[in-house]
Fold each of these.
Amino acid sequence: MSTHKDELKKLKGPDSFQLNVFKFADQIQIYRKPILLALLPVVGIGLAIAGWQWYRGHQQIQLQADLAKIELEHREENDKIEKEREKLHEKMVALTPKTQKADPEKEPPLTPEQEKIQKEMDAMKADHAVSEKKFMDFYKSHSKEAEGLTAALHVVKMHLEDHKAQEAAPLLAEILQHAGKETFDQLYVRMLYAAVLEELEQWDKAVEEVDKAIPFASETFLPEALLVKSRLLFAASKKKEALDSLDVLIAKHETAPEAQKARALKALWK
């Protein structure tokens, strides 16, 4: 008989919501404009932004340039370690026995020397101490600006890459204190915070954050948010509330892919 903890492990797998939420930090690196501008097609605030004053626009351009310099340093830190990793990889390939026949269907077994190099490569990690400090200093100086939010999210991303959810959580909470009412802040950043709280098994706090985010969710995203809420409620040993959340999802979004998952969860939880 499966225990409550066993069921949580099954539910904790990387569903589409978690994958999408954690991908957002990678997307930040693509945009060289403030997050709000980058999300114009999504949140539809183009007209409001177009009304900014002339001097404000020039100030933003300078902030973007300053942030871009830090982002460049951050990428260079990654590039440095990648070049070192490439050199080791070339060395490892050169150690492949010439008598070994290549099999396109299988990875060739590593020699003891190659295994040692592989472990060294796996242990390699970029040193982001300099860029992390600069991102944080920039954020503290511009905590109410979109560029400041972007800088702080870079740091959150680094914490999550290092599996330091405990450090990412308070920073996300602080970001949200300074955040505006835009959809990106109140939906995507807040849902990321909820995902981090889930990782820390702070179920009730995570549910609170999802509830705050739901009013900003589009009809497309809402089923995912409801599915996450039900999972968190179940994790918090609130089975009835979890089933109620699934019922809402099924009733209001019966054709959504998440509705099928909800039906399966209802059968599992009853």
Amino acid sequence: MVAMFSLSVRTQEWLIRAGIFLLFVGIVGGLFWLVRQSVQEKQTQEALVTALSRATTALEVLGRDTGEQPGHIPLKPCLADEEVSLDDCRAGLVCTDGRFPFWQGPYLPAAPRDPWGSVLRFDPDYACLPDIAGCGGEWWVRAIVAPGPDKQFDTNDDIVAVLCRE
């Protein structure tokens, strides 16, 4: 013998309404999540632009005061070969190693970091590629580099502020 399970019309209506309500809540929740993700991406981008801009301005002032950039590299020619983390005293932005002539710093209260917490790096011989944010082409540049979300330099998710190029 097979047992039949039946619901009253009222119970069926209630279940349909509950299902529609849960569907509606799921759709609204998904939309809120998408908006939240978009806002977070915008805030991350704004924080990165601010960090790169502050570092660029500090490097310009350091160069004007001392005639050098991090690692005691002269302002010209554009390319050289000394990567320096901007929290290193050889960078001359937050502290000095004592070798910068006419140093007037600190030029920044703290080393600039990207939104993922990594300290930015001064790289006077960065190999730009078209898919790297901020490069806009393929050439060698002097740049300030943020390692991006993977926290590794010299990968495709680097973000670059080009100071000069050759």
Amino acid sequence: MRTRHLGLVLVALAAACGPSSRDVFEEYSEKFAAMRETLREIHGALPPAGGPAAPGGLTGLDPRPAYDEAAKTGNTEIVMDWQLLEPGASKGERMDLLLGGRLLTYAEWAGPDTPMSDRMAASSADGSFRGELEGALQTRYLVVVRTAAYDAPRVDLEREEYYGGSATMEVFLFDLPEEKLLGSIRFEAVAKGDIEYRYTEGGEDREERAGAWARSRIWETAREMVCDRLARETGGTFQLE
């Protein structure tokens, strides 16, 4: 599994000229504070877990949702449900699909618990940086992913048994400026097929290593299904790396 990709458009210069990254973040602090409050309100508006899906409102959207994980562009952000309350959070024991883009990143970096280092904070902000922040604030659609149930993969090498695991995913699409729930889908991600894993003889525990690869398989399956189902239901584009 990969670590979250921050993708900040910042340029460090030996001699600071113009505003620093800290200056620009402070300039936008109130706007991102308001955005974090909006995200908390959306969390409170999520339907109870286990409820019926409501895909009817996902068709005919104008503009259509667009998401590109690699380019960090598009009009759509994808977050896990707990990140609405804490943008930088990652729950190791749960399914963090690591699909968050620039809105989630900047909401964290402009907050009181910013992970920005002193060196980065003091660096000069690139001329396009304000445009990046404005683009994040103008995100049209917010996708919230919630894991309703998770049955972890299990590997027993001695018995040569492997269970790929499953995850029941609930996916909600909001009009972010309106804070309006447009619709939702629900599906079960099931990892299928054999797993291949690598280990060092006399080093890593083989069963632990195989288990890590099995968990990666269900994680990848869930990521792909979220994007595939959203593209099918909305007619939009959802591109993974």
Amino acid sequence: MEDTLRALMATVALVVACSACMTTVQPRSGEVVGVGELSWGGYAPISTVGSGQLRAVGRVREGGQTRALSLGGTITSVLDANGGPPPPLSFEGSFRVGVIPRCELGAFGGIFRIGAEARCGLLSQREGAPLAAALSLGGAAAPFFDLKGPWLRGGVDLSRRFDNGMAALLNVALSRGPEHRFALEQVPVDFWDVPPDPNVADDPGASFEIEREETRLAVSLGFGVGDEVATFVIALVPYFVLDDGPLGAFECHRCETVAPVALEERFGLTLLLGVIPAL
């Protein structure tokens, strides 16, 4: 056959730690603002860890040989594919304004998504309830990627503030839309059993950028501490991939012999930092 894709069922155990992956849900208060009042938030994921399998195909090389291949892939939030610090692309900010009693409209955005949402309050600690609760529904687009969207999200926000300035936050959301992955891979030097061609051999820092449609359930377990101005939060955000589509787009950097064709991932965990208004 020509130098085109041949069957190479490569299974890759992925350990993912990605600084450029925004979470489905972020830690925020269950309190909604009053009519005409403003609320805001800023978030940055520090690291994401997950596991899965990447099915890949390989190109026929000298001698027409193919072999089964087991690749180990890692992603680090410290280094990007070029061996340098990643750009701060994963920051996401939001603002909301109260439009009617107990309901607010707002917008959120970052490099991955730009969208809008509505939230309505169910319970308020300011009114004597033991905790604050709100329902939200929103949508977004991904204008900077091949899969533009739509990306839809609905969820519930729960919070409880304590007298010592600390707060607990629980946020649960279900989403459907394009998600973005970044993965590194390495091909063993002796994989092809032929002298490597320095012009086409995979670089040790080869990387994939992968996009596909997913249905995700995400839970943010957050803890906050602050004063009368702002609350600083740290959260663990586990996510579960309930359904997924085929790879809608991928790009391979510095790799000529292996390309992804399918990704299986069902679970991941993100460490997230943020700042929100005082609770």
